[in-house]
Amino acid sequence: MKKTTGKKRRLQKPEPNGDSPANGPRAKSIRTVNGFDCSTNEPYPAYSSPTSDECLSVRDDLLNLHGFPREFVKYRKERERLSECCSVVDGSGGELAENVKSESVLDGLVKTVLSQNTTETNSEKAFASLKSAFAAWEDVLSAESKCIEDAIRCGGLALTKASCIKNILSSLSKRRGKLCLEYLHNLSIDEVKAELSTFKGIGPKTVACVLMFNLQKDDFPVDTHVFEIAKFIGWVPDEADRNKTYLHLNQRIPNHLKFDLNCLLYTHGKLCSKCSKRTGGRQRKKSLPNIPQFSIGPYSKKKEPRTEAVGGQLIAYGQY
């Protein structure tokens, strides 16, 4: 990918067949870095679900139900800005706020690290505490690990996360001479995966989140909510693990639907008590009434769905 010389960066445009540039003929060779598969290999080439129509149907149903999640508006706005769109609209057609501040790639990476194995509320508190305790990332790099741990303790796993953050900053300083990851904007998806995966403690979900939210690339992170819902509605085979689910969905889901669909599946999994496995915080979820329907035809071919829908053609939200 050529480096952009103007003030604005453009989103990668889909290839004619719907694949992202990283999946096209210019894709890099297979690479595995830090235990992370950086290739674009399709683990289930004969598995035809989800289709583009299924992705669109689920996206539209969830958008009608939830509207576009406000917590992701600033990232969506940045994507729209880069593609030279003037506004973002929610599920009701209303225009959303324009005053959205961009988040640095390094901030986004650290925020994602802090979000591991904890609640969204706790991770946000940990990041705010870290930024309050240290004026700049250079201060974090020069600080004692204990000071970093104290600053992020409210987010859990302080020792592990502090070590990961310190390693990122140290490695970045040695390799690039400054604590900045903005150069990643000019790399391909495969190159970003290879670059970020060299940092100890950075796995595929973290990399995918940075790609989608901070680099505005067409990628599809698979967290617990997305993984469980994708398995239930038959978008991946029963035996699929999270990494293979990630690889498969990134091949099958059209690029222009990835961002909205990912944000909406994540939000639905958080809010609906019946749409994910029993996880911590389940008691704070609620069963959502009068919910639109999924189109999940392929699921009925696998096993009997837990629903009264005839022929397995439709399933009411909140029942899987």
Automatic annotation (TrEMBL):
InterPro entries in UniProt: HhH-GPD_domain
GO biological process assignments: base-excision repair
UniProt domain HhH-GPD: residue ranges: 114-271
Tree of life domain: Eukaryota
Comp. bias intervals (Basic residues): 1-11, 278-287
Annotated segments matching region Disordered: 1-33, 278-307
Protein name stated in the entry: DNA glycosylase
Organism: Cucurbita argyrosperma subsp. sororia
Classification lineage: Eukaryota, Viridiplantae, Streptophyta, Embryophyta, Tracheophyta
